[in-house]
Amino acid sequence: MNFSYLNVGRDDSDRRASGAQAIFAIDYELPKNFGIITEFYGQSVDDEQPRGLYVLGALTYKVNRRLRLDVGARPGFGRDAPRVGLFAGLTIGVADFYRKRR
């Protein structure tokens, strides 16, 4: 879970707007290096994406212990939110903070 305070500038004036963002994510590994990611999130102020509620679903494939490929969709709910967005990407791990020392 992640909660954020947003404070963004406005294009139409010198004033700023405050808001909040909340994210709940689930990451689950499947057999044969596949996995799924689901996120539920929303924000109450316009910034890089319009205010609204969003649901993200992705299928992942772990190429090796440092590289994971992602592909999925993100529908949005709310008056200003885009109806659906598609994405593809990759995640590169640069450090293992949870490695057990022996």
Task: Please tag this protein with its features.
single chain, 102 residues, mainly beta, 6-stranded antiparallel β-sheet, 6 strands, 62% strand, globular
Structure description:
The chain is mainly beta and 102 residues long. It has one domain. It is built from no helices and six strands. It has strands spanning 2-9, 16-29, 34-43, 52-62, 67-77, 84-92. The protein has a six-stranded antiparallel beta sheet with strand order 1-2-3-4-5-6, with no helix packed on it. β5 and β6 (84-92) form a beta hairpin. The chain is globular and about 55 Å long. The two termini are 31 Å apart. 3% of the residues are buried.
Topology at a glance:
Layout: E1 2-9, E2 16-29, E3 34-43, E4 52-62, E5 67-77, E6 84-92
Antiparallel strand pairs: 1-2, 2-3, 3-4, 4-5, 5-6
